[in-house]
Design a protein that fits this description.
By secondary structure, this protein is an alpha+beta fold. The chain has 3 helices and 3 strands. The chain starts with a helix and ends with a strand.
Length: about 70
């Protein structure tokens, strides 16, 4: 994360997403990198930036959005 700060000093907020079922990723972003979970995407609350398949696959399309203020 420190190298990202050096390479992108004007960045105010980092954003990323990860699938709901990826517990290791969630742990890494929240507990190791200091990200906060700010949104949960599902078939009832879709990510406006992601075009899902016509056939909704709940396991694949449930996502957390993370943000880290720099």
């Amino acid at each position: 994360m420190e190298s990202n700060r050096k390479n992108h000093p004007k960045t105010k907020v980092w954003e990323t997403t990860t699938p709901y079922f990826e517990k290791r990723n969630i742990h890494f972003y929240v507990n190791k990198c200091g990200f906060k979970i700010v949104e949960y995407f599902s078939k009832y609350h879709p990510d406006p930036n992601f075009k899902s398949n016509q056939n909704f696959d709940e396991e694949d399309d449930e996502m957390f959005k993370f943000e880290k203020q720099m």
